[in-house]
């Protein structure tokens, strides 16, 4: 009976510590200054705090963001984030080697998948881009070497004080977009490419007062 009571006491102590830790973390997180675009949505906040603007040099991850940005064209990014795991499942964990070999049956299957954005042109573009992605890898050794060559391998750190200053495109995103199109990529307009650069940390567009500005 004594041991049982002791275990219960330890359990309550453990739970109390866990709850306290959670509450402190929650308060600290809530009090941090962020870029205003993530608002109060927990998913958006998590993405902002852990992914957006972090330099990505891994080809698999770069392709994942390329797919997501392609589907985001004309839609809000939060819509894509909420469907991200559905996209992951539908597109074989964003495996570009598999995607490049999708047949008509798989294409039709994707068109019927309510968990993703069922846009015929964007689905076709994803398959086309997977092939073009691998062609770039063959030429440069990796897609990462290719895309990062536009910034000499280093992130560009901007100094925006508020969100109104952030551009939708730049001459750099124009150049990358133009080159990608020449290589056969689809749905890679300058706006899409600039968003891709922001997401993958090629540019740091956190506002200067954001706690992530000096962390990424």
Description:
The chain has a two-stranded parallel ribbon. The N and C termini lie far apart (53 Å). Helix 3 runs antiparallel to helix 8 and helix 10 packs across helix 11. With 216 residues, the protein is mostly helical. It has 2 domains: 31 residues; 156 residues, Endonuclease III, domain 1, CATH 1.10.340. The protein is globular.
Whole-number tally of structural domains: 2
Number of strands: 2
Largest sheet: spatial strand order? 1-2
Query: At CATH's second level, what is the architecture of the largest domain?
Result: Orthogonal Bundle
Shape summary: globular
In whole angstroms, the N-to-C terminal distance is 53 Å
Number of helices: 11
Q: Helix fraction? A: 55-70%
> What is the H/E order?
HHHHHHHHHEHHE
Q: Low-confidence spans: pLDDT under 50, at least 5 residues? A: 20-28
- Indicate the mean pLDDT: 91
């Amino acid at each position: 009976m004594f041991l049982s009571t002791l275990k219960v006491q330890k359990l309550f102590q453990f739970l109390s510590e866990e709850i306290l830790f959670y509450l402190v973390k929650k308060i600290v997180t809530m009090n941090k200054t962020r870029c205003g675009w993530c608002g109060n949505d927990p998913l958006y906040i998590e993405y902002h705090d852990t992914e957006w603007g972090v330099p990505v040099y891994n080809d698999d991850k770069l392709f994942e963001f390329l797919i997501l940005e392609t589907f985001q064209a004309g839609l809000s990014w939060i819509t894509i984030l909420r469907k991200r795991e559905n996209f992951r499942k539908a597109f074989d964990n964003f495996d570009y080697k598999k995607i490049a070999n999708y047949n008509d049956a798989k294409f039709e299957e994707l068109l019927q998948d309510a968990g993703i954005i069922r846009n015929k042109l964007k689905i076709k573009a994803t398959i086309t881009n997977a092939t073009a992605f691998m062609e770039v890898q063959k030429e440069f050794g990796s897609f990462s070497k290719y895309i990062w060559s536009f910034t000499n391998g280093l992130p560009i750190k901007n100094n925006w004080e508020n969100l109104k200053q952030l551009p939708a495109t730049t001459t750099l995103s124009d150049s990358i977009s133009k080159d990608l199109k020449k290589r056969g990529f689809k749905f890679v307009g300058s706006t899409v490419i600039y968003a891709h650069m922001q997401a993958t940390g090629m540019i740091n567009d956190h506002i200067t007062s954001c706690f992530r500005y000096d962390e990424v």
